[in-house]
Specification:
By secondary structure, this protein is an alpha/beta fold. The protein has helices at residues 12-22, 35-41, 62-71, 90-98, 111-152, 156-208, 215-246, 256-266, 268-273, 290-306, 374-384; strands at 4-8, 28-32, 48-54, 80-84, 101-106, 252-255, 277-280, 285-288, 315-321, 335-342, 388-393, 399-406. The chain has 3 domains: 4-114, Rossmann fold (3-Layer(aba) Sandwich), CATH 3.40.50; 153-246, Helix Hairpins; 252-406, Histidine kinase-like ATPase, C-terminal domain (Heat Shock Protein 90, 2-Layer Sandwich), CATH 3.30.565.10. The strands form 3 sheets. It has a 5-stranded parallel beta sheet with strand order 2-1-3-4-5. Helix 2 runs parallel beside helix 3, helix 5 packs antiparallel against helix 6 (156-208) and helix 8 crosses helix 10. The radius of gyration is 27 Å and the shape is globular. The relative contact order is 0.07.
Length: 415
């Protein structure tokens, strides 16, 4: 299917120029000669992969039109590239990004640059549509399999065959998840550049006008900068989560005492500032990925420091139990437990599974800053090691996180 691009310009010659530059790439064009005409078109058509819009238009300029487009839920996902002959000040450039714009093309237009930028968003749109269609197909296959299982459960042989099909379908879902992870990695990476511009321009605006703006204006700028910083942290954590499936890791037998000491050394400043006491005990040697396992214990110790009780020195004990033999992912496999125990604020045990889910938080962002991805990242890493992680806690009595890892060597997961 040809991808649709909405061209918006009050001059016919500019519309013709844009169409001429891009027509060789096989796009379908819809043209509007004003912001109002574009809005009328978007009342019934939503499947545009990109909008190219002139800024200087009579009655309703490009920024105003973009703001109205961005207000509609069905349209806010459509990227907008502004086309202009002017080099706007920082405030106006920021205004464009805030209204849904993703980039600027300056006149006179460089045809190769225009085609290259349009191609990037074309590919993103195409991959997104492919993933959506694949997900629909997989959901339809799953529904069909479930119906067949319920209808034929009386026949053991047929159930066995259907289970084999289900296993194949799970493999397909895993491949789809990896593609979604790669897409999330790519999308998050592409979000960083406009976000850096938002932070940079807002900081410049604040510095330039700190004596002219009133208290309300300065507070709004502070909120913008704070929100941008939080979004940047969120993107960074999403990238870290997505990279687990995208990058290969080597597994080797290491002494956990040495690995933990490296984590403590890296966190020395945080530990000193919080007056925390970290007490490492006897720890085993296990076959793991050192890089990934340091991430796990960095997150667990960081959480123990963050969720400390007021006016009580944080005490964090880390020790192993070589006699544990829990049943894990592989039946009959021998497992070792490593405990991370703190004396912090704790939580109700009913939330012990919820805290390992993506974006799940038990406290407000204002009380305890964070993205809600750290423990989900820990769980993902431990599962890659054929292990599992759990938590025991009581409110105002601290928490104990239990990491169970196999003694046997682990094969690195395929990319």
């Amino acid at each position: 299917m040809r991808q649709k691009i909405l061209l918006i310009d009050d001059r016919e010659d500019n519309l013709f120029s844009l169409e001429t530059i891009l027509e060789a790439d096989g796009y379908e064009f819809v043209k509007a000669r004003s912001g109002r005409e574009a809005l009328k078109i978007l009342l019934t058509e939503f499947d545009f992969s990109l909008i190219l819009m002139d800024v200087q238009m009579p009655n309703l300029n490009g920024f105003e039109t973009a703001a109205l487009i961005f207000e509609r839920e069905k349209l806010k996902h459509i990227p907008i590239i502004f086309i202009t002959a002017n080099t706007y000040g920082e405030e106006n450039i920021f205004k464009g990004y805030r209204t849904g714009g993703v980039d600027y093309i300056y006149k006179p237009i460089n045809p190769e640059l225009l085609r290259a930028k349009v191609a990037v968003f074309r590919d993103l749109y195409k991959k997104n549509q492919q993933l959506i269609q694949q997900e629909k197909k997989l959901l339809a296959i799953n529904k069909t399999l479930q119906n067949e299982i319920s209808e034929r459960k009386a026949s053991e042989n047929l159930i066995i065959e259907l289970n084999k099909e289900l296993i194949k379908n799970i493999d397909g879902l895993e491949k789809a998840n990896k593609e979604l992870d790669r897409f999330a990695f790519m999308a998050s990476h592409d979000l960083q550049e406009p976000l850096r511009k938002i932070r940079s321009f807002s900081e410049r605006l604040a510095e330039k006008n700190k004596d002219r703006f009133d208290e309300d204006d300065n507070m709004n700028l502070y909120r913008i900068q704070k929100s941008a910083t939080r979004l940047q942290e969120l993107i960074k954590d999403i990238l870290s989560f997505s990279k687990l499936s995208a990058e290969p890791y080597s597994f080797q037998k290491i002494a956990f005492s040495d690995l933990l000491q490296e984590v403590i050394d890296d966190m020395q400043q945080i530990i000193l500032e919080s007056n925390a006491l970290v007490l490492p005990g006897k720890l085993p040697s296990l076959p793991v990925s050192p890089e990934l396992m340091k991430t796990v214990f960095f997150n667990l110790v960081s959480n123990a420091v963050k969720y400390a009780r007021k006016d009580i020195q944080p005490v964090i004990e880390i020790f192993g139990d070589s006699h544990a033999n829990d049943e894990g992912i592989v039946p009959g496999e021998k497992y070792c437990r490593i405990y991370v125990r703190d004396n912090g604020i704790g939580f109700d045990q009913e939330y012990a599974e919820q805290i390992f889910e993506m974006f799940q938080r038990l406290h407000s962002q204002q009380a305890y800053p964070g993205t809600g991805i750290g423990l989900a990242l820990c769980k993902r890493i431990i599962e890659m090691h054929h292990g599992f992680i759990s938590a025991l806690s009581k409110k105002n009595e601290g928490s104990t996180f239990i990491v169970s890892l196999p003694y046997a060597p682990v094969q690195a997961p395929p990319k």
